[in-house]
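User: I'm putting together a teaching handout on how sequence relates to shape, and I'd like one worked example. Could you take Tetratricopeptide repeat protein from Eiseniibacteriota bacterium, show the sequence you're using, and then write out its predicted structure as tokens right after it?

Assistant: Happy to. First the sequence, then the structure tokens directly below it.
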Amino acid sequence: MDTNHDREELIASYLDRSLPEAERREFEEHLAACDDCLSELIAAQTELRELTSKDAADAPPRPAIGPAEGHRESPFGSPLALRRSRRLASAGAAILALAAALLLTAMMQSSRFDPDYREGIHLLGRLMEVRDAGTLKLSGDGVRAAAAGTAYRGAGLLHLDLALETDKRLERALARHPGSARILNALGHFHMVDGQPEMAEIYYERALRISPDDPVLLNNLAAAAYRHGETETAQRLLLEAEHRNDPPLETIFNLGVLYGETGQRELQRVHLERYLELAPHSPWAGEARRLLEAARRRPAA
């Protein structure tokens, strides 16, 4: 595809759905491999948002509390370690060949290497980029309304296309690996991004039944419960996650947010300062500093 020729016209046609089906699919395949074109597409959507700033001002802000990036699940359990031994030197080649065969078999059976799972995660990343670029700050219902013809139509259509394909890929992978907490967690994360926390809760709960002690999954279920209005449940789950081994940094941040909302200022300060100490350059570091500064300025009760 010659995207250098009339690229702006091509992007405009894609956004208003006037591209023929074959060309649209070809362009989407190109977007997956071309960061420049994807950046231009997002920039065009940003311009659309700016042109409709009155509508954009009414869009709800992105919630501060959010799920951890991923489910830290080892693909094969314990890593395979091969040690040299003088007594086994003559059998070294055979051992390595057997190990390679076992490793390849494990990779083929692992959900991490499922092609639909990998593509679903790639599409989920693109879906998050669209939202993080500020082109679409709407709930799931708002996205569908946007695609129906409001000023957000271009952004809404792109979001819907990505969302439908992401959901299809991850559900297909889950059908092949029904016991994978990794895929269930990814589906929960997808529904969070898609503005459906009640659906996210279902998938996170299923994942927790498989890995009940995983602090990442506890954090993610807490984030979904919070966005669904279940603040007490969210705090209980976050405290459970905090007391597990190696809790995610998001748990520390999220507890700081909740303690601030419930007026427990000292606990808020402790958690947000700890978060900044551990992750001073994270995407949420600025928000943590803002919350701390606001707490300092607030008069004592």
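A couple of points you could highlight for students: The first helix runs from residue 7 to 15. The radius of gyration is 23 Å.
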